[in-house]
Every structure is written in structure tokens, then in C-alpha cells.
Design goal:
The chain is built from twelve helices and 17 strands. Helix 2 packs antiparallel against helix 9 and helix 4 packs across helix 8. It has two domains: 128 residues, Aspartate Aminotransferase, domain 1 (Alpha-Beta Complex), CATH 3.90.1150; 241 residues, Type I PLP-dependent aspartate aminotransferase-like (Major domain) (Aspartate Aminotransferase, domain 2), CATH 3.40.640.10. Strands 1, 2, 3, 4, 5, 6, 8, 11 and 12 form a nine-stranded mixed sheet that branches. Helix content is 36%, strand content 17%.
């Protein structure tokens, strides 16, 4: 027998999605314009790595985000990896990363032989900046204009904040912290395409920002990503590295074959034409969930605050207890053809990542056990507010 709480959540999801078939967590919004764009690309034979369509997609991203420079790549992880190299982060230097996070940032740091250093989140799923500042005050010292970890002797060079589920974190506070501790900021904006704070797009606040256009993102190129930056130096380095580091006829540096193929870019252009429509639909779904869940005493729905700006990619709820989130809870929704999932396990708890330094992660552990993502695609809807 389902609990009353499970039924409340199920009814909200079904009412908002207005569907009787399987309800996915986030299904890409694809229509005939996307099909036509792909067919045109195929007919032109303009499908391979970095053609004119990729260049056009980069121009369109620049226009939309107002970033000075854009490089379209084959994934958000590739974007993070090249950003780390281009920003001058060296082997054995530490990079601060939220432990409550998708694994891409951790992997990108390790690819570079750098050291992930795991930090705690706040209850809005952003970085707990006040707690981090106290922690860094305790364990670091500024020497030769660098932040040195007194416990490990290594330089803490950078921080990679993640705008989780498309919600821009308290970015101005984080910029102040970066200035104080001499940290480079690389934004993991993989989930935040279309999110703006005071007319600035996610990924344009730091030295550079990574975007993902994976199949589950707000707009998709199937697989793909991009780097946003206002630094010509960073742009030139990333473009060079992503194009197998070829200089004339020579290969004097290890490079990567990471450019986005034109076929993916063709889909990206068509998708970008619909971004405002998609954002509007997702915002309306968010408002409807908010109205439906406002009287719940068992969980809290994602909260909007002045410093948070969002593209409403994924909606989530945080339970006051983790007792209900057992196998039976998820089986109930699975049996109803409704996809829901827990937020990630902590990066720092994975067998390959346990050895890396970390601060106290009390809030991250709390959220990891209690946060559940709910269906947030572009649904048909009836206005109820």
C-alpha cells in the first residue's frame, strides 16, 4: 500500500505532466524543426568535426550568453578538462569542488593530475560560502600570492562551483571569497544554459565556464558542450588544444580531438531557437509544483531566493526525514511509470575518490540522503494559478 505522502507526490506529477504514459525525469523537447535541421546537415554532407555549422552554433551561443568567446566541444566534461589546463592549474595543485555534485568536475581535475578538495554545500545546493571561508582561514596561508594548504603543503589554485539543476549560486559572495584567497573560478554551468543573474549568463562570472548539451539538458545537441570565456588567451588555448593542438604541420603539444561535429551543432541551432519557449514552460511547471506542495509538512520544495536565478531545468524536493526514501518508495513510482531519482551520492564517498582531502560535509550528507528530483520536462499544461 502506498503512503499518503507518495500519493500526494504522484498526483502532483500526473496533474502537472497531464500524461497517462511514462513520465520521464527530463525528456528532450524535440520537434519537426529539429528533424529538418538534421536532414539539411546530412544532405549537405556537413556532418563532421568542426564544420561551418559548428561555427554558426558558436556564434549563436555568443549572441545568447553575451560571452566574448565560445568553443563548442563534444561534452561538458571535455569543456571542464580543457578549462583546467588553459587556466594554468598544474599537477598536484588542489581544486575546491562541492562533494554533492555530478562526477564530471572531479574527473576533469584528476585527468589533469591535480587534486580535488571536497567542500560542503548549503541548503540551496550551492557552496556553503561562509563555512568554506572559515575552513580556508583555518587551514591556509597566502604565500607569494598563492593560497597554500598548511596541512598538505600544496597550492589551492582554483574552485569549480556547480550551478546545480540550473540554479546560479550566490556568485557575488563567491567572487569575493576567490579574491581573498587568490583562487581561479571555473564555473561548472553544465546544467545552467539559459540561467541569468542580473543579465549575466551562468558561466560568464569566472575566468571561464563549461556548458553541457547532453541529451538530458534544457537544450541538447545529443552529446556536446561548450566553453564560455571573456579571455582571448583562454579561448585561443582551448581552441588549440581541442583541435589536436596542431600548429601548421607540426604537433608539438599533446592535444585532444574534442571539437563538436557539425551534425550535433545543427541540432543545437534548432534547439536554441526554442530556448525561450522551453524556459517558459519549465517555469510554469515550477510554479504549479510550488502551488501544489506549499502545504506539505513532510518535505520542502526547492526554494527561490533573491540571489538564486534559475533556468528551472530540474525541480526537486527535500524530505525532512530519509526514512521514507527506501527501495519501496522508488519502486512505487517505477511501477506507476514515473521517473524520480535521488540526487547524487557524494563524490568523496566513491572508492576512487576517498583519498582526496575534504572539509566537514555535514550538510552535503544530509542533502544526499533526502533530496529527490521529480519530472521536469516540457509538458502540456492547463493554467491553474
Amino acid at each position: 500500500m502506498p503512503t499518503k505522502l507518495e500519493e500526494i507526490i504522484r498526483k502532483a506529477i500526473v496533474k502537472i505532466s497531464n500524461k497517462k504514459t511514462k513520465i520521464f525525469l527530463h525528456k528532450p523537447y524535440l520537434d519537426k524543426t529539429d528533424q529538418k535541421s538534421l536532414v539539411r546537415s546530412i544532405k549537405s554532407s556537413n556532418v563532421s568535426t568542426y564544420g561551418i555549422t559548428t561555427s554558426n552554433f558558436e556564434k549563436r551561443i555568443k549572441e545568447y550568453t553575451k560571452a566574448k568567446y565560445v568553443v563548442a566541444l563534444n561534452s561538458g566534461t571535455s569543456a571542464l578538462q580543457l578549462a583546467i589546463i588553459a587556466c594554468g592549474i598544474k599537477k598536484n595543485q588542489e581544486v575546491l569542488i562541492p562533494s554533492l555534485n555530478f562526477i564530471a568536475s572531479s574527473n576533469a581535475v584528476i585527468y589533469n593530475a591535480s587534486i580535488p578538495h571536497y567542500i560542503d554545500s548549503d541548503y540551496d545546493l550551492g557552496i556553503h560560502i561562509e563555512k568554506l571561508e572559515k575552513y580556508l582561514n583555518k587551514i591556509t596561508q597566502i604565500k607569494n600570492n598563492q593560497c597554500v594548504n598548511l596541512k598538505t603543503g600544496r597550492v589551492i589554485k582554483a574552485i569549480i562551483p556547480t550551478h546545480i539543476f540550473g540554479r546560479i549560486i550566490n556568485i557575488n559572495k563567491l567572487k569575493s571569497l576567490c579574491k581573498k584567497f587568490k583562487l581561479i573560478m571555473i564555473e561548472d554551468s553544465s546544467e545552467a544554459f539559459g540561467a541569468f543573474y542580473k543579465k549575466k549568463h551562468a558561466g560568464t562570472f569566472g575566468l571561464c565556464g563549461a556548458i553541457s548539451f547532453n541529451g538530458n539538458k534544457i537544450i541538447t545537441t545529443g552529446g556536446g558542450g561548450a566553453i564560455l570565456t571573456n579571455s582571448k588567451k583562454i579561448f585561443t588555448k582551448i581552441k588549440f588544444l581541442a583541435t589536436v593542438a596542431k600548429k601548421g604541420e607540426r604537433y608539438d603539444e599533446v592535444g585532444y580531438n574534442y571539437r563538436m561535429p557539425s551534425l550535433n551543432a545543427a541540432l543545437g541551432i534548432s534547439q536554441l531557437n526554442k530556448i525561450n519557449y522551453i524556459k517558459k514552460k519549465k517555469y510554469l511547471n515550477h510554479l504549479r509544483y510550488k502551488e501544489f506542495f506549499k502545504k506539505s509538512n513532510s518535505f520542502s520544495f526547492m526554494e527561490d531566493k533573491d540571489f538564486i536565478s534559475s533556468n528551472y531545468w530540474l525541480n526537486y524536493i527535500i524530505f525532512k526525514s530519509d526514512d521514507i526514501l527506501n527501495k519501496k518508495f522508488f519502486e512505487f513510482f517505477n511501477n506507476k511509470n514515473i521517473e524520480v531519482r535521488k540526487i547524487w551520492a557524494l563524490n568523496s564517498e566513491g572508492n576512487s575518490y576517498k583519498k582526496y582531502p575534504k572539509m566537514d560535509l555535514k550538510i552535503s550528507k544530509y542533502l544526499s540522503k533526502r533530496t529527490v528530483c521529480i519530472p521536469s520536462g516540457v509538458f502540456k499544461w492547463k493554467k491553474i494559478l
